[in-house]
Amino acid sequence: MSDAELLARIKSMLVDSLMLKMTPGDIADDTLLFAPDGLALDSIDALELAVALEKNFGVPTPSAEVAREAFVSPLTLAAYVAANAK
Fold first, then answer.
1. Contact (CB, 8 A) for 74 and 14
2. Angle between helices 43-57 and 3-17 (to 10 degrees)
3. Would you give per-residue pLDDT tens digits along the chain (86 residues)?
């Protein structure tokens, strides 16, 4: 899967799994997930995101420290999935 395809799948997963009221095309590659001026996700969304990553890509999130680094933007999520996918 190409980087662009992975990024598109990540954005679709965000919209579907978190029931965001937007389309994947509305999310920029570098949109901050938890910032108020980004998607403004909360801690419940973080848990749902971790579950969605494992369900959709087979990539677990082993700790909060890993999540803090990976759950920054769609780009960082894609890099995390690419580095840890089986």
1. yes
2. 130
3. 899 999 999 999 999 999 999 999 999 999 999 999 999 999 999 999 999 999 999 999 999 999 999 999 999 999 999 999 87
Q: Are 73 and 33 in contact (CB under 8 A)?
A: yes
Amino acid at residue number 84? N
Within a domain: residue 26?
Answer: no
Nearest residue to 11 via CA among 35, 27, 33, 32: 27
How many domains does the chain fold into? Answer: 1
The CATH number linked to 55 is 1.10.1200
Residue type, 57: F
